[in-house]
UniProtKB/TrEMBL annotation:
The gene is metI. Signal peptide: none annotated. Belongs to the binding-protein-dependent transport system permease family. CysTW subfamily. Residues 13-203 form the ABC transmembrane type-1 domain. This is Methionine ABC transporter permease protein.
Length: 217
């Protein structure tokens, strides 16, 4: 492999890391509170609010059910508003964040549902506020499940970031399309696939290790 191609791989991998890392963090900042809100406002939640729960759930389901390649195009006006362009690594972060936040929200909601109802009732009996129930009971008890959900999200974002490369989002996906497909260099495409597989395996392994440690604390 030439030094020029090696530099391309390194820079493309760096772009992929940036897209996955930033969109994953932003998605978590939006999705975790949304997941908590969905759980609290559910029928059996601490703060039942059917209207909010139904509307928020409808929006979450709508975004989750939209194929990512369509979402990429649909949110171009938002992307241009936030970053000034619809092409490039920074632009790809916007749809990646929009795609990840509802995904995380549902996973967080599912993890919170696994918390024993008796623990919540005991906290309420002792006069705990809603906020205290959230950060002293719900989140600590469901933390391992939340981390597992975030791991799944980051793995999915790796694939999404590669898809974003198909429309000029940068990263390894863009490298594979431009050189592996358009310039008929199958070895480049193969190497891109191998790197993505290894990257996904590392993310999943680290996430599994963290979940196991949290589950046996």
């Amino acid at each position: 492999m030439s030094s020029e191609m090696l530099d391309l791989f390194l820079s493309s991998f760096g772009e992929t890391l940036m897209m996955v890392g930033i969109s994953g963090i932003l998605g978590a900042l939006l999705g975790v509170p949304l997941g908590i809100a969905l759980h609290l406002t559910g029928r059996d939640g601490v703060l039942p609010h059917p209207l909010f729960n139904r509307v928020a759930g409808l929006i979450v389901n709508a975004v989750r059910s939209t194929p990512f390649i369509i979402l990429l195009v649909a949110v171009i006006p938002f992307t241009r508003f936030f970053v000034g362009t619809s092409i490039g690594t920074a632009a790809a972060i916007v749809p990646l964040t929009i795609a990840s936040a509802p995904f995380i929200a549902r996973l967080v909601e599912t993890a919170l549902r696994e918390v024993e109802r008796g623990l919540i009732e005991a906290a309420q009996a002792m006069g705990a506020t809603t906020w205290q129930i959230v950060y002293k009971v719900l989140v600590p008890e469901a933390f391992a499940g939340i981390v597992a959900g975030l791991t799944i999200t980051f793995v999915s974002l790796v694939g999404y970031s590669a898809m974003a490369g198909a429309i000029g989002g940068g990263g390894l996906g863009d490298l594979g399309i431009r050189y592996g497909y358009q310039r008929f260099l199958p070895e480049v495409m193969l190497l891109v696939v191998v790197i993505l597989i290894v990257f996904v395996q590392l993310v999943q392994t680290l996430g599994d290790i963290l979940v196991r440690r949290l589950s046996h604390r």
